[in-house]
Design brief:
By secondary structure, the chain is mainly alpha-helical. Helices cover 85% and strands 0% of the residues. The chain folds into 2 domains: 144 residues, no CATH class; 106 residues, Receptor-associated Protein (Up-down Bundle). The longest helix is centred in the last third of the chain and has 58 residues. The chain is flat. The relative contact order is 0.07.
């Protein structure tokens, strides 16, 4: 194919991508402005001098919430899955889903604006191919960045939950064997874990409030397992349900489960220690081994060069 024709096609493709991005951002802004005007009309115009001004952070959250309401997912199953993911990542606010959808829409609009700003310079300096690559990269980053942020926070929270779960079980065993009921023991353990594992303590406090509100113990522990999203919590919820159905002692059951968690923690530490030499092989070869060779060979090479 003729190179000039290829360059022209790439330029047109980049221009179409930029136009679509700018159009999508403009539609989003117009829809948000129309929604804000309707809200202001319902509230009878602008704020009076007696009405306090919102802080910039509050205004930003309000804008993201409105964008999320415009881009709300219609399928209740998808909303439930998204809410579960956000709760596992530590976002337990009831408005977490609209804020997440609003942040994703805002990132796409920001990518569209940035593409429109950079496109003329890229077309003039580097041609259509570079422009198409940059616009495509910005679009991919804008689409994947919110999910990556939520996924990274979710992984961090799951690591904290796994680290604190054996301590949770040990404290539960000690509290139950001291004569406390399971519900009272959970509240006591939540107070003790608040210093070292605050996020896990928050979930335990939610569990305590649910049981005080009348929710059954089985459903409350299953809800805790869903919020934490780790296998240890699901195993504990299943074990408590079976112990309640069969009438076995909760103290003995928790003690056995705590011993199992302690063994698993030790095995995990030994696994990390055993994997350390393999992980150090590449840094040793790339960084330490060349320096060692230089220190050993360089003096001999210098003397050989002087003698020759």
């Amino acid at each position: 194919m003729d190179p000039m024709l290829t360059q022209t096609l790439l330029t047109y493709a980049a221009a179409m991508l930029i136009g679509a991005a700018v159009l999508g951002g403009a539609v989003t802004v117009v829809m948000d402005a129309r929604g804000g005007s309707r809200v202001r009309a319902r509230l009878q115009g602008e704020a009076t001098p007696e009405t306090p001004r919102r802080k910039p952070a509050e205004a930003l959250l309000q804008g993201l919430r409105r964008l999320g309401d415009r881009a709300a997912v219609s399928d209740p199953a998808q909303v439930s899955v998204l809410r579960s993911r956000l709760m596992q990542a530590g976002y337990m606010n009831r408005e977490a889903v609209p804020l997440y959808l609003g942040a994703r829409t805002a990132s796409l609009a920001g990518a569209a604006i940035l593409s429109a700003v950079l496109a003329p310079w890229l077309l003039r300096e580097h041609g259509g191919l570079m422009t198409a690559c940059v616009v495509g990269a910005l679009s991919i980053i804008a689409m994947l960045a919110p999910d990556r942020v939520v996924g990274a926070r979710r992984a961090k929270m799951e690591e904290e939950y796994r680290d604190g779960f054996p301590d949770l079980l040990d404290l539960l065993v000690a509290s139950v064997e001291a004569g406390l009921s399971l519900d009272a023991a959970v509240g006591r353990v939540a107070e003790e874990l608040d210093r070292h594992y605050p996020n896990l303590a928050v979930h335990l406090q939610i569990l305590t409030r649910e049981m005080r509100a009348g929710r059954s113990r089985k459903e409350s522990w299953l809800g805790l397992a869903d919020r934490l999203g780790i296998e240890e919590a699901r195993s504990l919820a299943t074990m408590l349900r079976q112990a309640e159905e069969m009438g076995t002692s909760l103290g003995e059951t928790l003690a056995v489960f705590a011993d199992d968690m302690r063994v698993k923690r030790m095995l995990k530490a030994e696994e990390k220690a055993a994997a350390l030499p393999a992980k150090l092989t590449l840094p040793l070869i790339l960084f330490i081994f060349p320096c060692l060779l230089g220190v050993l060979i360089l003096p001999a090479a210098v003397r050989l060069a002087q003698n020759l």
